Amino acid sequence: MKPENKITIRKKIAIISYGNCANLGDRIGQSIILRMIPYDCSVDFLYLPPFWNNKHGDNIYDLVIIGTGHSVFFKTLNDNNFIKFLDKQKNIIGVFGLQYHDLLDKNIFNDFTKKFRHIFVRNKKDLIYFNDKNMISHSGDILTTYFPLTNWTIDSKINIKPGIVDNLQDGLSIVKKIQSYRIVESSRLHPLLAGLQSCDEFIFHEQTEMGNKIKSNKFNNMLYDIFKGDFNPGEQYKVDKDLVLKYRKFVFDNLLIIQDKIKEFL
Question: What's residue 164's pLDDT?
Answer without folding.
Answer: 83
